[in-house]
Specification:
The protein is mainly α. It is built from eight helices and no strands. The longest helix is centred in the middle third of the chain and has 42 residues.
């Protein structure tokens, strides 16, 4: 348990870093990050399922420039980890899925504030880097860059650790209070989340006037459904 928790925290640091600070090799996307979390927790199928549900939802958020975004990738990772850990000891799949997804959304929102705090620190590091550059000190510039990347990694580790620890404890208590007779009401959770994701991507395409891409996607989807 402790080893798995530490591995998930490290993965959270990588996901947070890959989102904007460095790499950007798409490891941070929920489809990949949640599946890797599933592999680390020995339930890749459940991790992949969470990744599929949340990929579209966060796809519309593009963390470029100074735009304010949530830390959706880390939130998705926390959702997958909390769900897999609780599913080992609680036979309430529908309620657990709904609860873990909602918890992940909360973690993503809180992570957005953490990202804004990191950006303020990065502004200080940027001014230091400018000062080093003015003196021709390339080593100092590289050091500032490394500090900014390390800050993003540590923020991801902390957010993931808190999200998983608190999430497994809070949700275990909350789910135990939900009567078993209500489980069927939560069965629609995957359809609702997928619908929200499609709506978010559709709104993004419409806002950017990329209607042709939406039409091609719908046409390809219809062909696959035949």
């Amino acid at each position: 348990m402790t080893q798995e928790f530490l591995l998930i925290c490290l993965l959270g640091g990588i996901v947070a870093t890959d989102t904007t600070a460095a790499f950007q090799v798409l490891v941070s996307h929920p489809l990949v990050g949640c599946t890797v979390a599933g592999l680390l927790l020995r339930d890749a199928q459940l991790g992949l399922s969470v990744g599929i549900l949340l990929e579209l939802l966060w796809l519309a958020e593009v963390p470029v420039g100074g735009v304010r975004t949530n830390e959706g990738n880390v939130g998705a990772l926390v959702s997958a980890a909390v769900l897999i850990m609780l599913a080992r000891r609680m036979q309430r799949p529908e309620v657990l899925l709904c609860g873990s997804l909602l918890w992940g959304l909360g973690v993503a929102w809180a992570g957005g504030w953490l990202v804004r705090g990191c950006r303020r620190i990065n502004t200080v590091l940027l001014h230091r880097a400018d000062a080093f550059a003015a003196r021709g000190d390339t080593r100092g510039v590289s050091l500032c860059h490394a500090q900014a990347i390390a800050l993003s990694f540590v923020a991801g580790v902390v957010l993931t650790g808190f999200g998983v620890l608190a999430g497994t404890r809070v949700l275990a208590h909350v789910v135990s209070m939900v009567p078993p007779s209500a489980d069927r009401a939560f069965a629609l959770t995957p359809a609702v989340v997928l619908g929200a994701g499609l709506g978010a991507v559709g709104a993004l395409l419409l806002r950017r006037k990329n209607l042709w891409a939406l039409a091609v996607g719908l046409f390809a989807g219809l062909l696959l459904l035949r």
